[in-house]
Design goal:
It is a single chain. This protein has about 400 residues and is an alpha+beta fold. It has three domains: about 80 residues, wza like fold; about 70 residues, Outer membrane lipoprotein wza fold like; about 210 residues, no CATH class. Helices cover about 55% and strands about 15% of the residues. It has seven helices and eleven strands. The protein starts with a helix and ends with a strand. The relative contact order is 0.11.
Length: about 400
């Protein structure tokens, strides 16, 4: 049992270490890759594992692609996988010491060789590699586009200000059209007047058309609600008329029953009519009065519902006016803010043009133009030669890649 315990205690770390290289089995090692190596030997006589601490640890692949280890000497690691190196280490140790059982070697990548960023970036240099590293991430690590050149900075300032200015112009035009629609709704006008600020704008008709559609939709919704309330009032008014007619008939029947009861009451006093007949008439008379009270109550309820429908219609109109007024205030505030920002961006563009005359060429350029970074990657082809390939922002990088970034004044 003790031997089994020692076996599992020594074997478990080794198995965990061996499991890692499988995730990068196809990765080819190269100079500056750092490897974590661990070697254990099975001793048949003792039935236990023995670790080789001298050859276990972290080692770096040299500039020539060689890996120098105790006992095994130099191994050519460049262009090989971690599993291939592990096999060579175990084989060399077995041969050197004449071991009956071949040792087990586990090799994993402790740290990939770095990547390099050069060109028009803020801080070119060497950076640690990450398996999910892309060109854009590498350039971000290097601080992004170089900001040291004053002219380029003002060109960027001009382009940013112009872009924000154009966005705000479009937003202001939408706000002007919305304000015109709110003014028309508050005045109960049938059409929206084109604001003078949009008189020469080619998109004015579309903007006003969109707002007109909104106004028509809101008006139709309000009309439907008011019509529903009017129909409800009409329904209750008809109910009141019907109840009043029933009350007239019921009152006439009550009067006739009262006369009959009076006549029978006199005969009952003389003993000419049985009392049961009198009681039946009195009960019917009481029921008639109860029905009249119910009709009167229903009439009052219908009148209350008419008043409530009238109040609801008034509240609906008042709520609409309050909402329109609130929207008008918010729209005007947004317009004032947009105008202030437009003035600020115009001043920024003017400043950029004064400080960098080259930015004037961008004033008439098309949308999306301006200084941008263009990328290429210098990569080791695996046979000792390098090649340069064009790259995009999302191009994935490999360990040892050199990313070259160059500023171009016009986006391709």
């Amino acid at each position: 049992m003790a031997a089994i315990s020692r076996l599992s205690g020594a074997l478990l770390p080794a198995l965990l270490l061996i499991a890692f290289p499988s995730t990068a089995a196809e990765y080819k090692l190269g100079p500056m890759d750092k490897l974590s190596i661990r070697v254990v030997e099975w001793q048949t006589a003792e039935g236990t594992f023995r670790e080789w601490p001298t050859i276990s640890g972290n080692f770096t692949v040299g500039p020539s692609g060689a890996l120098s280890l105790p006992f095994t000497g130099e191994l050519q690691a460049g262009g090989k996988t971690t599993s291939q190196i592990a096999g060579e280490i175990a084989k060399n140790l077995q041969q050197k010491f004449g071991l009956r059982d071949r040792p087990e070697a586990a090799v994993e990548i402790a740290e990939f060789r770095p990547i390099f960023v050069s060109g028009d970036v803020e801080t070119p240099g060497k950076y640690a590699y990450d398996p999910e590293l892309t060109v854009l991430k590498a350039v971000s690590l290097a601080g992004g586009m170089r900001r040291g050149e004053t002219g380029q900075r003002f060109e960027r300032d001009f382009l940013n200000a112009r872009g924000n200015h154009d966005v705000l112009i479009a937003e202001r035009n939408r706000l002007l059209a919305k304000r015109a629609r709110l003014e028309a709704e508050l005045a109960n006008a049938k059409e929206i007047k084109v604001p003078k600020e949009l008189a020469d704008n080619p998109d004015a008709q579309k903007l006003i058309g969109d707002e007109a559609a909104i106004m028509l939709s809101r008006k139709n919704a309000l009309t439907l609600q008011l019509n529903a309330l009017n129909e409800l009032r009409t329904l209750y008014q008809n109910e009141i008329v019907s109840l009043e007619k029933k009350m007239v008939v019921q009152n006439r029947q009550k009067d006739l029953m009262a006369k009959e009861l009076a006549n029978i009451g006199g005969l009952a006093d003389k003993g000419l009519v049985v009392n049961s007949r009198v009681m039946t008439l009195e009960t019917s008379f009481a029921e008639m009065q109860s029905k009249l009270l119910d009709l009167d109550t229903n009439s009052l309820r219908a009148k209350q519902e008419i008043n409530k429908a009238t109040r609801d219609a008034t509240d609906l109109e008042n709520s609409r006016k309050a909402e329109l007024t609130s929207d008008m205030q918010a729209t005007q505030a947004a317009l004032d803010e947009a105008n202030l920002k437009l003035a600020m961006y115009r001043n920024l563009m003017t400043e950029a043009l004064v400080n960098a005359p080259a930015a004037a060429a961008l004033a008439g350029s098309g949308e999306g133009e301006g200084p941008v970074l263009q990328y290429s990657i210098v990569r080791n082809s695996g046979n000792g030669e390098t090649k340069e390939i064009a790259a995009e922002e999302n191009t994935p990088l490999l360990p040892g890649d050199l990313v070259k970034a160059a500023i171009s004044n016009v986006r391709s």
